[in-house]
Amino acid sequence: MANQYEFTPEDLQEIEDIKSKFPEVMPATLPTLWVAQRRFGHVEPDVQELVANTLGLPFSHVHGVATFYTQYYKEKKGKYVLDVCTTTSCQLCGGYDMLHYLEKKLGIKKGETTDDGLFSIQSVECLGACGYAPMMQITNDIYVNNLTEEKLDEVIKSLKAGKMPEFESVGMPQHTERS
Amino acid sequence: MPELFIDGIRYEYEGSPKLLQFILDNGKEVPFFCYHPSMSAPANCRQCYVKVGMPVKDRETGEYELDENGERVIRWFPKMQTSCSLDITDGMVVHTQETSEEVARAQKDTMELILINHPLDCPICDQAGECPLQIQTYKYGPEGSRFEVKKVHKPKRVELGPRVTLDAERCINCTRCVRFTEEISETFQLTIASRGDKNYPITAPGKPFDDPYSVNTVDICPVGALTSTDFRFKARVWEMNQTPSIDITGGKGTNVDLWTRDNLVLRITPRYNAEVNDHWMPDAGREAYQRFNEKRISRPSIKIDGDNQVKTSWNNAIETFAETLEGNKPSDVVVIGSPHASVEENYSVMKFFSTWGVNNFHFAPHIEKGFGDDFLLTDDQAPNTNGVKALGIDESSDLNAAIKSAKVVVILSDELIDRGAIDASSLKGKYTVLLATNESQTSAAADLVIPVTCIAEHAASYVNVDGRVQRSFPAKETKYSNRKLNLEMSEGRLDRHGTYFDNWVTEENKIDCIPAWEVVSKLASRMGLDIAFDNSREIFEEVSSSVPLFKGINYERMDEENGVQLTGNSKEEVTA
Ligand code: SF4
Ligand code: FES
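That is the input. Now the predicted structure with iron/sulfur cluster docked in place:
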């Protein structure tokens, strides 16, 4: 069966540039998977095979790499993937409440995607932002900190309107003191 | 010479060996899982921990610093080292679990971690009895586990490919199987998917593990995660006898072990031979065990009316054979040797017939172009093509022509009609005598079929494509051989220690056949020729003294040297 996915000429050029940075092809696997995920929104098996063929690497190798990292989506996801942190600090500060609020609000469980293909919810391990717990990350990108139910309402509303929340700079306590 | 001290004993070393391999080579032991001598050492199981230190040298003088007792001052590495990946350096001091409590404890704790999610289902696991994890847990592992939480579940009974089944829960992620496909068979079919406590080896999505060498991963898997789909649940390893032999499905002469129980060969595994096949064998060779058990010809048979064969007695078979020969002139007889039969079989048959006056000997190599690779598979489909050539039997490209004018055709162990080397019609009107192991179209066409032993039932030698002569041992009994009396036969635990009732033996599994040289001896004595062969060892000695290429070679040398290159020849000379 022919692969339903194809890189654009620009993608291929970018991949060539990536390859030229390394003495061997193998290290290009990770950045090329990113190119693919950006293009198709996920790296399901067919995309992994496309990456393997494009780089001339074994399909099995690309599969191993893709499944190692949770940030690569191995199946189709919503346009916005809401990664709600539920590790210790966030958990203590209400991470699960935020997760369950989102689940109820969007009518899906974690790991699922809404019918309109807009949102997926995942509960994830520590994202290294314990100081602003509870928090979540949107599609491997913007962090949304110090979550509350109201803040979530706002975020969902703006995402539905196609607008990513702004990057919030949160100062460290020592910085706040000094200013 | 550079030196090192292991457990207080001084050793000298050459080159730059890895510590674990050096320890093993010197007859000592450190437990390990992921290391394999033929592959790279990723040091991921962490089981081979040892404590290592280096003597302190005075920077100025370059002399070793000594303590108040005059002993070298040792600076210990801050952490335990994985011996599999550590290069030995001059003066190194090593403590294994034998002399260090700390090391023993570290190994025990590593084992406890490895076993957290292992299902411990040894009672139903095929690997039990030959399982490094089981053995080393008994020897070095903890007595219990502190992990009383639920185990992680992973896929079970995964058909990785046509011949290999995976139980991911048993896997300890040593990556031996993955490295095998990357470094040895180079098909890159396996990878480790996912990570942490959820990872396990798998193929790329939707792709089968159909590597022609796939079952080797079953052999090197240090646990029961990879099992042979064919052999699964057939027998426990301790019930079987293990007998060294040679792969007969190709020309490479891959060294193998035949595993038998109740005189059935149940599986074939590779046997280490650095010169021939290292630790590996092709999957194709493993299937040969069926030939040893099934569709065997047992008791001679003879055509009496039309095309129907009936079983007959040995006396009658030999008598018929003799009468047929006596009713014809030697010049009417053509004898066809076989690359599928051993040196001894070909030699004894040839000797008998040439003594009687026949000089029309032929054989047809069994070549399938394109079948071979640059590893262990060869175009040559027979184990002894070079052996037959070395004996001086004529190689015929057209056997049909060679037998055209003959009245009697004698064929040694070769399914000539089945493989298209002769047409059934070419045998019409001639009397055909076949010495054979298995039923085939060829045996159906013969007028007299005499069952002979196969490689699993006799000791005999075979010359591989590279001109190396290697031999087999009898692994299963025939109606006329006895494990207890034949000292070349291996005895398993049950044979040696079991009572009569432990050693259930099914008579039907013993084939009513004799070695080809015994057939020849019987025939010779009936026909009054002075030829008698007692055993294959003697025949080989005769070959060695009369055929120049075999000069100076005997069974002892083959056993000691794991096979011997034919004298004074390179590959070219033998194949020429
Ligand atoms: S299946 Fe066996 S050989 Fe492969 S990684 Fe697991 S334990 Fe190692
Ligand atoms: S054998 Fe050394 S780490 Fe596995």
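The pocket of iron/sulfur cluster (ligand 1) is lined by residues B 171-177, 201, 221-223, 225-226 (CB under 6 Å).
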